[in-house]
Amino acid sequence: MRLYSKAQIGLVIVVSVTLTALSIAGIVFVLDRSDQNQSTMAVASKIAQDGDGAVYIPEITSLGIQDDKTASLSLQVANSTLSMSSYSADEIENITIYEKYNESVVNINTEVLGINWFLEPVPQSGGSGSGSIIDEQGYILTNNHVVEGAYKLYVSLADGSRYEAKLIGTDPESDLAVIKISPEPGKKLKPIPFGTSKDLKVGQKVLAIGNPFGLERTLTAGIISGLGRPIQESETTILQNMIQTDASINPGNSGGPLFNMKGEMIGINTMIYSPSGGSVGIGFAIPVDTAVRIAPQLIKNGQVKRGWIEMQVIQLFPDLVNYLRQSGKAAPVETGLLVSTVTSGGNAEKAGLKGGTTAVRYRSTVFYIGGDIIVSIDGKPVTKIAELYAALEDTSPGQRVNVEFYRGSKRMSTVVILAERRR
After folding, report:
1. 128, 254, 279, 340: which one is catalytic?
2. Residues 345, 254 share a domain
3. Residue 264 sits in the same domain as residue 318
4. Which residue positions in the chain have pLDDT lower than 50?
5. With left for phi above 0 and alpha for psi between -120 and 50, is residue 237 left, alpha or beta?
6. Distances (CA, A) of 297 to 131, 181, 215, 218
7. With 51 labelled, which of 16, 62, 279, 336 sits at a CA distance of 20 to 30 A?
8. Catalytic residue list contains 145
9. Which of 145, 225, 246, 248 is catalytic?
10. Is there a catalytic annotation at residue 254?
11. Could you give the CA distance from residue 60 to residue 420 in angstroms, rounded to a whole number?
12. How far is the C-alpha of 177 from the C-alpha of 332, rounded, in Å?
């Protein structure tokens, strides 16, 4: 057995205590850093995964972060994660298109002339609608019925500025019009890009921006509910190939753009079907391809030049059909357009079409029977006056069209070189 002195024993105790103390300090340091790392990971997880949208961001000191740059970077990461998780992909599409193009939609207000108690003409407030800026020079596309009969036109932009506008041209048959403002030099306008309406599909998502009831730059969303809808607007006007949508359209939306999800204008919002006067989810927009064809002519000529057959026609109706049978001048059809007269030396006469020879009166109208009965133009059935206008809506003077008709019981056809239609 080896014996140790008191001095040796004391030295061993001191060294042992020192080593034990250093070991404990190291363990505490490691545990503290581990807790901090776990706390940081917990916060990041909370920010990224909090499903109810609430964000928990503890005080920086609780993370054990002392470096300002590190703290700033952590906050940037948290904010970026938050912005990406706050909206769905569908919402981000809507927001992006609205923020990019809502300033391209204008509010149009009109003044009309009324008569006061002294039978004097006085300006009165007219209607309101929407329009789309289509170029940087200040040309604006809208509906004809928005500006029809207006004495003065006023356009309000997104920044609150207001300008008196000039009417450039109108086309009642397509219900389109172009107006123009002249902003001060240096003011930049943002046009809406044109898309196409050729490849649209039912079910495709669309957005509408307009000013319903004067509530400027309102966004509504929906889908295309139908395509190729013919809508009869008046006795002589059928709006062809209308786009049907369930995007909410109300009074004041007329003339505003209908967007696809690329941010392109594919239609011009025009009318709604509504027994009550409010939106019931059935709205109609003019295809943008029609506007692409019409707008340049309105800017250049103020109107659209279309082809016409120089004749006067009467739409067949039951009483007239019965009378033709009784008089021995009936055709084997009950619908079509009876040629009452042809213009002497006009294109209808040159093409061989014949008018009536016997004058008859129906109520207050006098016309002639015994002439040809037109049933189609270029393969498009023509049974009403409005369908005649619709068949010639996309034509121009000098164009040739094939006209099918009955002369008595014989079906015939001829080619007519169109004249210019007079407004």
Report:
1. 254
2. no
3. no
4. 1-4, 6, 8-9, 27-31, 34-66, 69-71, 73, 75, 77-78, 80-82
5. beta
6. 18, 18, 32, 30
7. 62
8. yes
9. 145
10. yes
11. 79
12. 42
